[in-house]
């Protein structure tokens, strides 16, 4: 059963009763880069929105005060779902990549398979921080360049250099509005993960 | 039928009422842990608990429960903890190790690839 991105069911569609394993992939990128568009184009459900209230032990608060100083932050995120088979269901999370959100990510997305960094060539600055944090955390990722308005001004190699991206990190052009294109982005990521997993399994028996 | 919004999520104080004053949950429920009801709602049950039991007559991920109930994930985790203690739900936890640098095994990834290619 194939449904186009415009015909997502309005009613909630339950998972198969045999569903037993939930997996996560995160789509990171700056504001307006097309994260939700990508999630929507491959999701079997209309993307949902939820929020996490995070309590963080006070940072920059005088710790000698003897009071358990805490700040509360709410971060909202979109997600979509793909049932891969009867047992495995993949959740895609679109999350803001801006610096101020990153302290939340540790908890939100621990155990994620990997990440897609969605890049807009008109605002590449937004991508640097996300890439830096993913590298720091050791979260595997690929970079997808969302081509707006048939933008062909910047070839992938040029963007790779601009982002100082190592050769082993896959890059792919995409149009986040198109289902097959978004699907290819996910395949590129999982292919990359599998190559890494196989390499690890052969060196660490 | 549109399910009513259980609480006004704009007022954090009221979330404490939903959770009986607790603000921390055991980290046992991942965003994608799949929850399944083991019983039907019973009369007099807290409405959020009842709603979760209805939703989870089929496996439902924690994050979907939060979206459906319009409650923050943190609050949903606490409610799930209650239901789990009461034996009213079971949880199917993700297989993937909850550590950043640990990759899942290549067999699982192969299954994921296969599923994606069939989309």
From TrEMBL, chain A:
Gene Ontology terms, MF aspect: GTP binding; hydrolase activity
Keywords from the UniProt entry: GTP-binding, Hydrolase, Nucleotide-binding
Taxonomy, superkingdom: Bacteria
Gene3D superfamilies on file: P-loop containing nucleotide triphosphate hydrolases
Family listed: Belongs to the GPN-loop GTPase family.
Name used for this protein in its record: ATP/GTP-binding protein
Natural source organism: Streptomyces parvus
């Amino acid at each position: 059963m194939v449904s186009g991105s415009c015909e997502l069911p309005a009613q909630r569609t339950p998972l198969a009763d045999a569903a037993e394993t939930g997996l996560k992939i995160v789509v990171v990128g700056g504001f307006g880069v097309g994260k939700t568009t990508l999630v929507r184009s491959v999701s079997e459900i209309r993307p949902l929105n939820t929020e996490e209230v995070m309590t963080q032990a006070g940072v920059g608060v005088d710790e000698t005060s003897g009071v358990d100083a805490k700040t509360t932050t709410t971060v909202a995120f979109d997600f979509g779902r793909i049932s891969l088979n009867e047992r495995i269901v993949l959740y895609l999370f679109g999350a803001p990549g801006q610096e101020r959100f990153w302290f939340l990510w540790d908890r939100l997305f621990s155990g994620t398979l990997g990440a897609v960094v969605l890049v807009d060539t008109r605002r590449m600055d937004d991508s640097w921080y996300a890439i830096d944090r993913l590298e720091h955390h050791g979260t595997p990722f690929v970079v997808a360049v969302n081509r707006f308005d048939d933008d062909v001004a910047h070839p992938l190699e040029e963007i790779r250099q601009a982002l100082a991206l190592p050769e082993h990190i896959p890059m792919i052009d995409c149009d986040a509005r198109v289902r097959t294109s978004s699907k290819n982005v996910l395949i590129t990521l999982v292919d990359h993960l599998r190559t890494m997993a196989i390499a690890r399994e052969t060196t660490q028996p | 039928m549109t399910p009513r919004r259980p609480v006004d999520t704009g007022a954090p104080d009221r979330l404490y009422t939903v959770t009986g004053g607790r603000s921390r949950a055991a980290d046992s429920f991942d965003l994608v842990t799949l929850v399944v009801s083991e019983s039907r709602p019973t009369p007099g049950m807290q409405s959020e608990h009842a709603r979760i039991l209805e939703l989870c007559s089929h496996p439902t991920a924690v994050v979907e429960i939060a979206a459906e109930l319009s409650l923050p994930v943190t609050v949903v985790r606490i409610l799930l903890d209650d239901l789990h203690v009461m034996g009213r739900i079971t949880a199917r936890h993700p297989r993937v190790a909850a550590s950043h640098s640990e990759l899942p095994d290549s067999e699982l990834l192969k299954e994921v690839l296969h599923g994606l290619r069939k989309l």
